Amino acid sequence: MKRIAVFTSGGDSPGMNACVRAVVRTAVYNGLEVFGIRRGYNGLIKGDIFPMDSQSVSNIVQKGGTILKSARSKEFMTPEGRQKAYDNLHNFGIEGLVAIGGNGTFTGALKFFNEFGIPTVGAPGTIDNDLYGTDYTIGFDTAVNTALDAIDKIRDTADSHDRVFFIEVMGRDSGYIAIQSGLGGGAEKVLVPETQTNLEDVIENLKDNMQRSKTSSIIVVAEGDDEGSAQDIANRVKQYIPNSDIRVTTLGHIQRGGSPTAYDRILATRLGAACVEGLLDGKKCVMAGLMNNEVVYTPFEDTITLKKPLHPDLLRLVEILNI
Ligand code: F6P
């Protein structure tokens, strides 16, 4: 293999730049030519492909977002789109890809490999931490810390005004951001998609807290919770405890930005390098992840189909600590 290309795809996450940097520099170190593709699969289809070298990735390790830009491509889901993508890769003589993204990105890469035989090694770039085959995804730690900072600030004002706050965090169908930020922020309850939410229990818990003179409470709600959004849940709860002062904050996209934490930079760096080393080693259609602090490669089939469960200890601890 002489030429590879790297792209970022799907929702951006802090640490993607550190990963791109590691890919480019590891490729150069190994004597490979390396290209960047802008805006994920859309750039592959349009031929928005450019040569990169060691200098192209200077001064980006600390930056949030992605210098390669990102997109969710509808066209790549069509056979015509993938044919155009292949034609461009063929014209550039690119023989292997590094894809930094999540589930959708790897689903596309697997389809592409089955049709055109282009090997891809992926790095898990998503704040959601919803990928099987890695303990943590790139950007998750930063997103949790951003959410935690917001929860701490909301706790100050909640306490001053004796209010109940429902705080909605991202995560798509995963409760990882919610459980980690909720546990770290001392939330009274955390509602996640992985377990069935019982509103009666939430209401009883709040009433109980009031009786115990606990005048403010924080309830962290994962956006994918089965009972709906934080606003929906708050509206329903309010009907049963009308004398409580309930507020809702949806943290939204601030969780996707910002300078990556040390953990995310190092994770991204290790996995970026592992992607290139994996390609050189002849790996195809696998995701590089870190499990128990060791690099492991998991087939895309597994990362796409297998669920990463929430550690039951985390849920249990929220309950135990809310006494
Ligand atoms: O996958 C990352 C993520 O931020 C999810 O947590 C969220 O559900 C989704 O992307 C939001 O996507 P968009 O930025 O396209 O609205």
Which key terms come to mind for this protein?
single chain; 323 residues; alpha/beta; Rossmann fold; 2 domains; seven-stranded mixed beta sheet; 11 helices; binds 6-O-phosphono-beta-D-fructofuranose
Question: Explain this structure to me?
Answer:
The protein is an alpha/beta fold and 323 residues long. The protein has two domains: 3-139 and 260-305, Rossmann fold, CATH 3.40.50.450; 143-256, 3-Layer(aba) Sandwich (Rossmann fold), CATH 3.40.50.460. The chain is built from eleven helices and eleven strands. The strands form two sheets. Strands 3-2-1-4-5-10-11 form a seven-stranded mixed sheet, sandwiched between helices. A four-stranded parallel sheet has the order 7-8-6-9, with helices on both faces. The structure holds 6-O-phosphono-beta-D-fructofuranose (F6P). Residues 11, 102, 126-128, 170-172, 223, 256 line the site of 6-O-phosphono-beta-D-fructofuranose (F6P).
Brief description of this entry?
The chain is an alpha/beta fold. It contains eleven helices and eleven strands.
What's the structural blueprint in terms of helices and strands?
Elements: E1 3-8, H1 16-29, E2 33-37, H2 40-46, E3 49-52, H3 79-92, E4 96-101, H4 103-116, E5 120-124, H5 140-161, E6 164-169, H6 176-184, E7 189-191, H7 199-211, E8 217-222, H8 230-240, E9 246-250, H9 262-280, E10 286-291, E11 294-299, H10 300-305, H11 312-321
Parallel strand pairs: 1-2, 1-4, 4-5, 5-10, 6-8, 6-9, 7-8
Antiparallel strand pairs: 2-3, 10-11
Helix pairs in contact: 1-9, 2-3, 5-6, 6-11
Residues 11, 102, 126-128, 170-172, 223, 256 line the site of 6-O-phosphono-beta-D-fructofuranose.
